[in-house]
Amino acid sequence: MSDFTTPQFDHPPRPMAQRVGAILWPSFFAAGVATMVFFAFVDPLALRDMTFPELAVSRELGYTIGFFAFWSATAASSLFTWLLLRPASRFNRALPPD
Amino acid sequence: MKRQIPLDVIDNGSNSLYVSERKVYPRDVSGPLQNLRIAAVVWLLGMFYVFPWLRWDGRQAVLFDLPARKFHVFGLTFWPQDFLFLALLLIIAALALFFFTALAGRLWCGYACPQTVWTEVFLWMERWTEGDRHKRMKLDAAPWSRDKLLRKGAKHALWLVFALWTGFTFVGFFTPITDLSARLVPFAWGGWETFWVLFYALATWGNAGFLREQVCKYMCPYARFQSAMFDRNTLIIAYDPMRGEPRGPRQRGLGSVLERGRGLLDKVRAYEFVYRAGGHAAAGDAMAQARAEAGLSTDAAFTASLGQPLQRPAPEVAGDCIDCTMCVQVCPTGIDIRNGLQYDCIACGACIDACDDVMLKMGYPKGLIRYSTQNAIDGKPTRVLRPRILVYGTILLLLVVGWSWGVGGRSELIAEVLRDRNALYRTAGDGRIENVYTLKLINKTDRAQSYRVEIESGAGIALAGGPQVVQTEAQQVLSLPLVVTAPASTRGRQALSFRIDSTDGTSSETVDSSFFGPLQ
Fold this sequence. Notes:
The complex is a heterodimer of chains A (98) and B (520). Chain A has three helices and no strands. By secondary structure, chain A is an all-alpha fold. Chain A has a domain at 39-85. The longest helix of chain A has 27 residues, at 59-85. The two termini of chain A are 33 Å apart. Chain B is an alpha+beta fold and 520 residues long. Chain B has three domains: 60-227 and 387-399, no CATH class; 232-377, no CATH class; 413-516, Immunoglobulins (Immunoglobulin-like, Sandwich). Chain B has 20 helices and 16 strands. In chain B, strands 8, 9, 10, 12 and 14 form a five-stranded antiparallel β-sheet that branches. Chain B has a four-stranded antiparallel β-sheet with strand order 13-11-15-16, with no helix packed on it. Chain B starts with 31 loop residues before the first helix and ends with a strand. Mean pLDDT of chain B is 90; it is low at 9-18. The A-B interface holds A 1-5, 8-11, 49, 53, 80, 83-84, 86-89, 91-98 and B 4-5, 9, 11-17, 218-219, 221, 223-224, 226-227, 230-232, 234, 275-282, 285-286, 289, 293, 306-307, 340-344, 374-375, 418-419, 421.
């Protein structure tokens, strides 16, 4: 049986800037690297012709869409990691009253 | 003081960050919910292992033909252009998850999740070779011997064969499985087929044999979101502390709380007993909530008083929980459900079956742990039809109807037109302006078709050689170069559209494009 007299270590919530920063910044960095590597080999115009040839997508717009697409994917992954690393006590609560 | 139970509860108050994972040895359990679980395992794994072998119209009934970029699901064929339906299907699946979770808790986790289902089968194999819980614990603690080697070896041999068969079946959804099995002896699989069979087998073996409940506790996002879908009217696996507390051993022949006329405790005392017994965060929260509802504070003085042991309750006060810890021993995630709703609970109901069995032996009524709602446990009425259920249900119904209607009414013809990228236009010998296009036609029907291709335009623009008739095989993708000519006087951009009609009149498509002439 656990001894309830000694409180278990439970990390206090971190500041909002730390939480948001730890999700957005590493993902931003990863997305930047991925964008550079990807577009070093793939021309956005060639990609457009393969996918949506009827849309007037310029190279600049292609790079921009590519970067934000990468960033949304990497940020989603960072968010997922944050969620899984939160201590159990953040989730194990009684159901709120009606 | 309470007698210490010689049992290591896996759960350690659930809020320590760095603990080495202790192995959970789920005890064998039987009962109606376990039977339901076995039925779910047989049904779901049956679908997985049997579907690739079924035939439909002379082809494999369920085949995700990646090389041909076509998914066959019984009578339906999906093309890359049908991606929208796949996306919609995923949204429907997510919404169905919300709906059923709000209604009846984590049914998915307990009965349908592949992680649960395969773990269950791997546990069966572990039981056949190593025995039930106490035998497995003893075997693991024992030094290596011939018996241990044989038992562990047999377990892993069974696991490995089953995992390889699983990997083979998985690849059989992508490569025709009869062909794949024919190429097994003599071995003639391609490199990627071999890789994916082995990779999927490895994942099955690792997830179902070793990681097990850790996937649910540490890797699954759904568990973390449960509080967003649960409310007090959601069906959950719940222990009734008002009836069960104070828990503990008792003299033989002591009747249940009902027979003795003790009845149910008040919430404040009951939840305090629960918290004192385990010190669990969820129980502490429930206690604080019960106290707040009763107008009592949970201040520092009260918290300090929790450090003082209670006097042992008189025998006639004892609740119906005999603290046999069966509910903990059968739990596949190793938690103590008596601490209250926890995100680690996969709602398999093993503790219900185990506890009902104990209650039966004690001569007490069943249902100390039961499928119930928080409102029902707290003696309040349960409301099944509530706004959340109605909203989820309505959206779900609309999406399902829309999806079926969309899939049923898909066009049987896809046409795309690509302009030649190399030259905007060219001038023919007779001075006429020509543009070159590639017409991509996809005949999605299961029979050969012929199509008539023509141009609709006001500026005298026409196909060189007039309207064309094209033959396609069943489910063929056809690329057709087309030359379009216009009078020599054509200048700048002109709108035109390609019109494609099947000659039997069943389908037609119009594709808009542009024609370019010299600017001046």
